[in-house]
Design goal:
Length: 237
């Protein structure tokens, strides 16, 4: 009886392994000529998380950034890079998801994920993870827009608006906030005056730059902050 149970156990492991760890074209480990994730430890590292279930299928829209279709991307976990992954970034819960084969979706262990990148609309998006810090209120995954002597980040969020559609259906609403890291501190920036206040010694020069170059900044377009931040960064150093 014991031998039969052991046989059934090993057959179950063999059957489930492809489902849990995926095919070679789901994710692979970037180490030289490594053809795919073949090492069990690497599989366990990448898929260390829990099976994801959609709890918001009745809400209009979706909880993901940009698209409800999987986006090809690269994930960094505990110093190891896994390219060619299919990912979703759930900005409602600030969680990263990936396909693990046979329609199984894994919510990755956030404690182990260091960051991820993906290409969307002909642009590369790079996300870093901020740890909870008593000095800064910026935590979780953030998009790095500019990096120099200062860094510019954007944090995407979604909330659920109750009965927002015809007073019958709930709906997702997306928002974003920009943050500037200067001298090791994080500052929220929502308009050009917030940026100027951080470079008060160069106030007139910055205003002249904005006027001459007709710089237009909008919190709805985080990328519009980049030219101004780059200019201020050069002034400050």
């Amino acid at each position: 009886m014991r031998s039969i149970r052991l046989l059934l156990f090993f057959l179950l492991v063999i059957f489930l392994s492809p489902a849990l760890y995926g095919r070679s074209n789901d994710c692979r480990l970037a180490t030289g000529n490594y053809p795919g994730i073949q090492d069990t430890l690497d599989k366990q590292l990448l898929f260390n998380g829990r099976v994801w279930r959609n709890l918001f299928y009745k809400v209009r829209g979706n909880q993901f950034l940009f698209s409800d279709s999987f986006i090809p991307g690269t994930i960094v976990i505990n110093g190891k890079t896994f390219p060619d992954c299919s990912i979703w970034y759930d900005i409602l819960n600030d969680e990263l998801l990936t396909k693990a084969g046979q329609n199984i979706i894994i919510q990755l262990n956030k404690e182990m994920v260091e960051g991820f990148t993906f290409n969307y609309n002909f642009k590369t998006w790079r996300f870093l993870k901020f740890q909870k810090d008593s000095l800064n209120d910026l935590t979780g995954y953030v998009n790095l827009l500019y990096q120099g002597n200062v860094s510019l980040y954007v944090k995407y969020r979604k909330v659920i608006l109750m009965l927002a559609v015809d007073n019958k259906y709930d709906e997702f609403e997306q928002s974003q906030k920009m943050y500037l890291m200067k001298d090791g501190k994080i500052y929220p920036v929502g308009n050009q005056n917030d940026v100027i206040a951080l470079y008060s010694s160069y106030k007139q020069q910055i205003k002249n730059y904005i006027r001459i170059n007709k710089v237009k900044i909008s919190r709805k377009s985080p990328e519009s902050f980049v030219p101004l931040i780059e200019y201020c960064d050069k002034l400050g150093h």
